[in-house]
Amino acid sequence: MNLESKLPNVGTTIFTVMSQLATEQQAINLGQGFPDFNPDPRLLDMVSKAMADGHNQYPPMPGIVALREEIASKVHKLYGANYDPLTEITVTSGATEALMATIQAFVRAGDEVVVIEPFYDLYLPAIELAGGIPVVVPMQAPDATHATYRVDWQRVRAAIGPATRMLMLNFPHNPTGIVMTEADLDALESIVQDTGVMLLSDEAYEHIVFDGNIHQSIARRELLAANAVVISSFGKTYHTTGWKIGYCCAPQALTAEIRKVHQFIVFTVPSPMQYALAHYMQDPKPYLGLSDFYQAKRDRLHAGLAKTRFQPLPSLGTFFLLARYDAISDLPEADFARWLTLEHGVAVIPVSAFYRQPDAPESNHRIVRFCFAKQDSTLDEAVARLARV
């Protein structure tokens, strides 16, 4: 059989590779982004109750109404946006499926999609499966005068042309940990006003923003929200990454197209989790307190790394922290990550894995990504091992 791959450049993801290596080496896994602790026992009890109450069959295709109403209420309270829970909110199989369904719904063969690099690894394959053409705009990497990555919005604007279908955004940003500011929203408003480009905003880490700042959602600005699909993740918010439940908010005309694809990818997502989340969301304290919870872990890891030969960089959001290893090695990032796992028992992710050409010199800045969504004892043991590097 003559088999021609639709994704010839895609192999096993770096997250799976590093997690498997960590397991084989019995290393501490600070690579893949998932907590090593359980969610709130109250939420687990609510799932059990939903099952016992008989919520075990197909729920409505776009999600149970009670959950969509809670999402609409939360988004309105936090960002001032008014999404109709019946026609403008869809519960999805994680933010992953929301991204895939949106791209498949709107990107046609030959359409260009502007993507800011470094980027989450799903973006390019999803665009290519739809027949689209990724147009990659690199961020400016940290240097002697800038401690974090930065987006050059002028370069983003210049990349948008007649064939552009969509601009993909991800803030708080994985892997760099940078967040949106009011000035960024201003720049985006100018771009949308000039071009009318559709925005796909991956806001999975919306509730993890540090140092007293607030999340600048695309939904805060009426012009942006009218041209955008805004996506979030219950997995990141409630420490339930294995449940794979997220959602997307978009104007009715956009939502209608997304649901056409959603119903044929997964149809719907598990009933008992949806009912449990609808009840759990009635208390805002868990998501309102998430930034403080993770800031303590960020500070713990940052302080620990500062006593090693690593140079931690500022993390403004997400549960990731970047660190330079210039003082340790001149290996490319992927080789260094593998060496660190094998020789010192701590697994990390090379930031170069989030570039279109991971092996290229311009993709390697001797920076690796640590996940601090871990128990304090896990972080402390990792730092103790890293101190011996």
From TrEMBL:
<protein>
    <submittedName>
        <fullName>Methionine aminotransferase</fullName>
    </submittedName>
</protein>
<dbReference type="GO" id="GO:0030170">
    <property type="term" value="F:pyridoxal phosphate binding"/>
</dbReference>
<dbReference type="InterPro" id="IPR004839">
    <property type="entry name" value="Aminotransferase_I/II_large"/>
</dbReference>
<keyword id="KW-0663">Pyridoxal phosphate</keyword>
<comment type="similarity">
    <text>Belongs to the class-I pyridoxal-phosphate-dependent aminotransferase family.</text>
</comment>
<dbReference type="GO" id="GO:0005737">
    <property type="term" value="C:cytoplasm"/>
</dbReference>
<dbReference type="Pfam" id="PF00155">
    <property type="entry name" value="Aminotran_1_2"/>
</dbReference>
<dbReference type="InterPro" id="IPR015422">
    <property type="entry name" value="PyrdxlP-dep_Trfase_small"/>
</dbReference>
<keyword id="KW-0808">Transferase</keyword>
<dbReference type="InterPro" id="IPR051326">
    <property type="entry name" value="Kynurenine-oxoglutarate_AT"/>
</dbReference>
<dbReference type="InterPro" id="IPR015421">
    <property type="entry name" value="PyrdxlP-dep_Trfase_major"/>
</dbReference>
<feature type="domain" description="Aminotransferase class I/classII large">
    <location>
        <begin position="27"/>
        <end position="386"/>
    </location>
</feature>
<keyword id="KW-0032">Aminotransferase</keyword>
<dbReference type="InterPro" id="IPR015424">
    <property type="entry name" value="PyrdxlP-dep_Trfase"/>
</dbReference>
<dbReference type="GO" id="GO:0016212">
    <property type="term" value="F:kynurenine-oxoglutarate transaminase activity"/>
</dbReference>
